[in-house]
Known about the structure:
The complex is a heterodimer of chains A (246) and B (232).
Chain A lengths: L10 H33 L13 H28 L2 H33 L7 H22 L3 H32 L15 H33 L4 H6 L5
Helix pairs in contact in A: 1-6, 2-3, 2-5, 2-6, 3-4, 3-5, 3-6, 4-5
Chain B lengths: L10 H18 L1 H22 L3 H22 L2 H9 L2 H7 L4 H30 L4 H28 L6 H28 L5 H30 L1
Helix pairs in contact in B: 1-6, 2-3, 2-6, 3-6, 3-7, 3-8, 6-7, 6-9, 7-8, 7-9, 8-9
Amino acid sequence: MAINWFKYSSPASFYFLAGKMIPLFTIAAIILFAVGLYIGFFVAPTDFQQGEAYRIIFIHVPAAWMSMFLYVMMAIWAGIGLAFNTRLSSMMATAIAPTGAMFTFLALWTGALWGKPMWGAWWVWDARLTSELILLFLYIGFMSLQAAIDDPRRADKAGAVIALVGVVNIPIIYFSVKWWNTLHQGASVSITQSPKMATTMLTGMLIMSIACWMYAIAVILMRTRTIILERERHTVWVGELQGVTK
Amino acid sequence: MLPAQPNGCNSPDMSLWVIQRDLLLAMRRRADVLTTLFFFIIVVSLFPLGVGPEINMLRTMAPGVVWVAALLASMLSLGRMFSSDYLDGTLEQMLLSPQSLSMLVLGKALAHWLVTGVPLVLMSPVLGIQYDLSTEALLVLTASLLLGTPVLSLIGAIGAALTLGLRGGGVLVSLLVLPLYIPVLIFGAGAVEASAAGLGAGAHLSLLGAFLLVSLVLAPWAAAVSLRISME
């Protein structure tokens, strides 16, 4: 018997699948966060150069990874939605954006907290910091464009165009900022030559990354479910959910 | 009288026709063109008042200030690129025409550049003198603006097309378009600094040229897709 690969591309059936998946990812996220934070705070040794302040990398690095990864995922879903006109893909893209922006903000915020004791400044115009800030602008642009459009289908497609244009531009922006930074040798602060990391530190960081990933999936699925309900509120199946018969 | 629309489906003719038409319309409303230019001049002249008249500092700031002002001036005039045609229904007829929409958008973006970008390029040496730039720096600044401002119009066309007919479109377009302008800003202002540092502006100008070629190919297409989305 052939498997129907497209069964869950229908918002109605995906709604229930997501409902079943959310508890799994939530539990995984809670357990992994607990393990990761335990390793981060109690098992990982104190860094001989940076003291205790380095421990912020256990949230900073995963947040920075997630911020970039989620932008690409958002663009992929938005692109699929634009190309194949599938409503659910565009809903996924819309649901990813706030989580991605949150991780971008978190990466900037924890970076500032780490920068103050390490570099003596909350903010330096380092290439990575600057491109992370621009990434936050791109997320905000995507969300405000979608928020400004009343018709959801037009919002999906317009958002897809700006997300794809952003993805094409991200490498260009990253390298421009990098070269700009090397031209201005003023600050001369580099976080690229990090000292070799102890294995426990790396383990803690990887576990925290997976925890962030699980958290992101759970939250995005919840948001997708909400978007589905909002957009499909006039359909029969949503009515049946609420016990209203049409 | 408007130039006659080309009969055939030859796309470059379409671009030329749109450019002619937009230039003629701009000439009928010269105040709009001058407003953008004076905005540019005023913003550049405000900076010395804000940071003080110390000439060494102004000299190092000049390329960045002129470029940021050019970015803002180009962005502020984006709203005019499609909106009047959208309001009087011309844009809808253009979408229905058998000619390629990308070529039409290309014509619109080039007309926008001729009306807003070229006056800025011509004015920039005068403003550079205000900041006591050397002759060589003035030349590099003008060359970088000449290569960079068309990129601004082309990228801006995407933002203008996406925000067509939206409430608060003017502020929104700045959120969408300004982050995408950053590479142009970096290499445009960087060209002048590199030549002042004795490195030569060649690498920066080449990169600006590369941006121009890439955006000439990709931006009209993306803007055409956006227009179809906005006009559905």
